[in-house]
Design a protein that fits this description.
Layout: E1 6-9, E2 12-15, H1 26-30, E3 33-41, E4 44-45, H2 48-62, H3 69-82, E5 88-95, E6 111-118, E7 126-135, H4 150-161, E8 166-171, E9 176-179, E10 183-188, E11 191-194, H5 205-217, E12 221-223, E13 236-241, E14 245-252, E15 255-256, H6 263-276
Helix pairs in contact: 5-6
Length: 282
């Protein structure tokens, strides 16, 4: 993996070779942090305001001081410029800063890091695998974009071992929830459906844009509890995320799906593009 040449840490652009955080940073020690991932195209971060609002919400829930919007935006632009990137995957990470070796926090200020890499395209379709572990919809981290990602790392590794590109979780009620870095939508009888936030899934920025785009285009869509077994009977399915937009599924476990030929998925993808095109910060 080719690392970017520069990284932003606590107000400074540093060479990646010298960019370091303390070994006592709680983000490193116990995963005590939050983050956002967004894309930039033609030198402009996409939906930065929505991502900042979610970052602030995550920081508030975790009692981490969030950055001012101007600091957040300038840090992203400066990091992209330092790495000579116009199309980029951008990650903004906030941790609670240095702390003791246990779960108690110290009194250090938050650590903020901005990293960028070249934006890479996804294949036209994706394949997914359901995993045997669950999301806990009653967890203290439910709905928070936390840096505690070990569940996702393990689930995605298992999916890759079975030839899939993403893993899907049920929650403790055996309801469809989300992927490791995606929200899931299914199509049944012409109706688009997606798990509600009460399922424990993350409030995805692209998920919200898709819901708004469908409403604007007159496409029927429901946020509703869905049994995980719906993946065995649905007509179409697609993932959403900031880097994927609307990404059709070609296989769920061993079940073949329509992929890009799904008529409703095509309508949703078109509605999404029309909804966000030309807007300064949709």
């Amino acid at each position: 993996m080719n690392l970017p040449t520069h990284t932003w840490i606590n107000g400074r652009i540093l060479s990646t070779a010298e960019a370091r955080i303390s070994p006592f940073d709680h983000g490193f020690l116990v995963g005590d942090g939050v983050f956002e991932t967004l894309v930039a195209r033609n030198g402009r971060p996409f939906t930065p305001t929505r991502h900042w609002r979610r970052l602030v919400a995550s920081c508030t829930a975790m009692n981490i001081t969030p950055p001012e919007y101007e600091v957040y935006l300038k840090a992203m632009l400066a990091t992209m410029q330092a790495n000579d990137l116009t199309d980029a995957r951008v990650r903004v990470t906030l941790t609670s800063g240095d702390g003791p070796l246990g779960s108690d926090r110290g009194e250090a200020p938050a650590t903020m890091i901005v990293a960028t890499t070249a934006l890479k395209p996804w294949p036209p379709t994706e394949t997914v695998m359901t995993v045997p572990w669950t999301r806990n919809e009653r967890s203290a981290l439910a709905g928070i974009k936390s840096t505690s990602y070990a569940d996702n790392v393990r689930a995605l590794a298992l999916a890759h071992e079975h030839g899939a590109g993403e893993a899907l979780f049920a929650n403790t009620r055996d309801e469809l929830c989300e992927g490791t870095g995606t929200n899931i939508f299914i199509v049944s009888g012409g109706v688009v459906q997606t798990p509600p936030l009460s399922s424990g899934c993350l409030a995805g920025v692209t998920r919200a844009l898709v819901l708004e785009a469908c409403a604007a285009a007159g496409i029927a869509v429901e946020e509703t509890g869905l049994p995980i077994a719906v993946l065995k009977t649905c007509d179409e399915a697609f993932l959403t995320s900031s880097t994927r937009d609307v990404h059709p599924l070609a296989r769920i476990d061993q079940r073949e799906m329509p992929g890009v030929s799904g008529a409703v998925t095509q309508r949703v993808a078109q509605a999404f593009q029309e909804f966000v095109t030309g807007q300064e910060d949709p």
